[in-house]
Design the sequence.
């Protein structure tokens, strides 16, 4: 990771794009307090990640790229544990969990074991898990990796609904330019630990001076067309495993 | 469902979960609640899929029915007034919870490949509660073993002390020992981080812990150097406490005070180290 300066507005959906190994996941891990920043600082909903890490944890939700639900438990139980870890008062737990499940369209299968869920359902359950405490800021790391187009669309719609109903600020990473184009108000393209382009998808498309440019053209323009050697064996193996389990 | 104003007030819906100053009591209550939540998470997993527990029952059965019966018969091990099977039963209880505990860390490595542990660490839960909750769940896994071994003991006519206080003591000794060794296992998992290395180290740890303790023979029959090691082994004190509490004519050689003192101290130290190392798992 090299120096990085971005500011995300409240209620905005912001996309972090970049080739494998560009530093997207590292950046997110620092922002959500899993990794200490090597230098500098960032503030989330007004709290410094360096000095107020525990306050930051209360105001964010996080959906990791990897599977983050327990297959041997039911959907309801998966949410219950997080309701407790997020200090949701006892009498509010049940209605909040039911609400989150309903919001994500998972009411019917609340009491089924998660290992019987489809890939798209697992993803939606993971999002439900991360919004139980109604965080003003939500981090989504590759939210649709390994999903078929239909499941992907359902995830997009639910995330969009989340933003319009709760005004949640969303910071997401993705490899899918189509996803970034349709969901994000603004995107930052990262390359070798640096932000090389930042702006609205339409402005970026216009900036490379080619008619009918897509976000994919913008991406290649800024990150170079050479095959990158980025992304460790472990990262690749994780992504593939996640894709395999979801699919 | 949506009113136009809602989108403009993102903070309106989150007031209840924003950080606020806390008094010491609510900090303690929160810590305990989250520790129990972490344990409950593990216990619910076992309830949905008890295969592991059933498989785990095989080992103590073999130790008591085969090894115990044979060695009782040949009287090869001097155990004073106690029959060998009586001497062995508390040792097998300690051993079976040790085996469950020492391999439980592998679940953490598994969870690391998933994203659950990331989510735990991103939640406002202290590392202490995460570590202790997980370690306690190892203790809870030991309890069905205790029930099984009591049943076997009755069948083998081991003279059990049914005093309720003594039974509570057995419960405490099993919980403490298993919690301590689960923490040890977590520490190993946080340091080695891969399944292969973990399995290797797990094997290397269990055998010396088990054989350099008073679980299957008295320390007095050991060579001098091994006696020294056995006296530094927490398993020895767990077995000693169990022998004093579980058997009708059992005597604790070192005294229950020292036994429980060692167990509590070991557990505390190991849980603190595990809590410290917990964030390592995602780096």
Sequence:
């Amino acid at each position: 990771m090299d120096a990085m300066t971005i500011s995300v507005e409240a209620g905005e959906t912001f996309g972090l794009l970049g080739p494998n190994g560009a530093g997207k996941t590292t950046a997110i891990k620092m922002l959500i307090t899993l990794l200490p920043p090597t230098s500098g600082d960032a503030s989330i909903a007004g709290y410094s990640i360096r000095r107020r890490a525990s306050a930051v944890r209360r105001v964010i939700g996080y959906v990791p790229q990897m599977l983050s639900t327990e297959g041997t438990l039911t959907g309801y139980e998966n949410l219950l544990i997080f309701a407790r870890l997020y200090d949701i008062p006892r009498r509010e737990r049940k209605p909040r969990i039911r609400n989150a499940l309903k919001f994500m369209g998972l009411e019917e299968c609340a009491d089924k074991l998660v290992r019987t869920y489809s890939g798209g359902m697992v993803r939606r359950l993971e999002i439900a898990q991360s919004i139980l405490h109604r965080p003003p800021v939500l981090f989504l790391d590759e939210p649709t990796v390994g999903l078929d187009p239909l499941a992907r669309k359902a995830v997009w719609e639910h995330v969009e609904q989340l933003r319009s109903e709760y005004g949640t600020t969303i910071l997401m990473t993705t490899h899918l330019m189509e996803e970034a184009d349709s969901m994000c108000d603004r995107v930052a393209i990262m390359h070798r630990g640096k932000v090389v382009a930042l702006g609205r998808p339409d402005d970026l498309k216009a900036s490379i001076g080619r008619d009918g440019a897509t976000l994919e053209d913008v991406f290649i323009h800024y990150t170079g067309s050479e095959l990158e050697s980025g992304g460790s064996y472990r990262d690749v193996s994780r992504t593939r495993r996640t894709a395999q389990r979801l699919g | 469902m949506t009113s136009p104003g809602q989108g403009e007030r993102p903070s309106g819906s989150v007031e209840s979960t924003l950080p606020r100053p806390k008094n010491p009591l609510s900090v303690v209550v929160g810590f305990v609640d989250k520790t129990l939540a972490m344990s409950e998470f593990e216990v619910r997993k076992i309830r949905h899929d008890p295969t592991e527990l059933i498989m785990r029952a095989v080992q103590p059965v073999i130790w008591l029915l085969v090894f115990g019966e044979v060695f009782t018969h040949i009287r090869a091990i001097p155990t004073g007034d106690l029959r060998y099977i009586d001497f062995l039963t508390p040792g097998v209880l300690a051993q079976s919870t040790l085996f469950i505990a020492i391999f439980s860390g592998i679940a953490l490595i598994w969870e690391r490949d998933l994203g659950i542990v990331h989510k735990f660490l991103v939640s406002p839960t202290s590392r202490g509660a995460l570590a202790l909750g997980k370690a306690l769940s190892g203790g809870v896994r030991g309890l069905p073993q205790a029930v099984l071994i009591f049943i076997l003991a009755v069948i083998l006519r081991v003279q059990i002390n049914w005093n309720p206080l003594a039974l509570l003591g057995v419960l405490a000794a099993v919980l403490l020992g298993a919690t301590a060794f689960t923490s040890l296992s977590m520490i190993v998992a946080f340091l080695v981080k891969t399944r292969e290395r973990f399995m290797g180290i797990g094997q290397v740890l269990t055998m010396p812990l088990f054989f350099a303790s008073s679980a299957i023979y008295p320390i007095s029959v050991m060579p001098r150097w091994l006696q020294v090691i056995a006296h530094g082994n927490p398993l020895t004190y767990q077995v000693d406490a169990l022998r004093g509490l579980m058997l009708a004519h059992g005597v604790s050689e070192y005294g229950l005070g020292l036994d429980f003192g060692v167990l509590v101290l070991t557990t505390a130290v190991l849980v603190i180290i595990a809590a410290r190392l917990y964030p390592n798992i995602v780096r």
Observations:
- The radius of gyration of chain B is 22 Å.
- Confidence is low (pLDDT under 50) at residues 1-17 of chain B.
- Chain B touches chain A at residues 1-2, 6-11, 13-14, 16-19, 30, 33-34, 37-38, 40-41, 44-45, 48-49, 113-116, 118-125, 279, 282-283 (CB under 8 Å).
- Residues 213 and 232 of chain B are 9 Å apart (CA to CA).
